[in-house]
Amino acid sequence: xxxxxxxxxxxxxxxxxxxxxxxxxxxxxxxxxxxxxxxxxxxxxxxxxxxxxxxxxxxxxxxxxxxxxxxxxxxxxxxxxxxxxxxxxxxxxxxxxxxxxxxxxxxxxxxxxxxxxxxxxxxxxxxxxxxxxxxxx
Length: 137
Ligand SMILES: [Zn+2]
Prior knowledge:
The chain has one domain (3-136): HIT family, subunit A. The protein has 2 helices and 5 strands; from the N terminus they run E-E-E-H-E-E-H. It has helices at 55-76, 123-136, and strands at 16-21, 25-30, 39-43, 80-84, 94-100. Strands 1-2-3-5-4 form a 5-stranded antiparallel β-sheet, covered by helices on one side. It is globular. Zinc ion is lined by residues 3, 6, 8-9, 46, 92.
């Protein structure tokens, strides 16, 4: 897959909606909100592996990751945040940032991929989650 076929590069992601452009990445809220506040942070530019980024971009991406996770922590007070980077079938480097809640969805184990094509919460709730994240970014 090259950039012309990549939904992150073509801005046609349909499993998540943009929250904000950060310095070296774009933050999305996944349409599946079975873990409230679940996001994807995708690097700007079509890079499959972290080592393909220039050092300064990797440093900026790392700072964006911390910034996004801190915002989720402030907004939703999860018991833990999980991070996942896979990309076997989607080689545009991104982290899944998944707030976990004690006793909630997939607590104590790996999170489900669950990339739903539709919002799993009402529109007003989805919009309020985005607003809460933006408040702390
Ligand atoms: Zn891409």
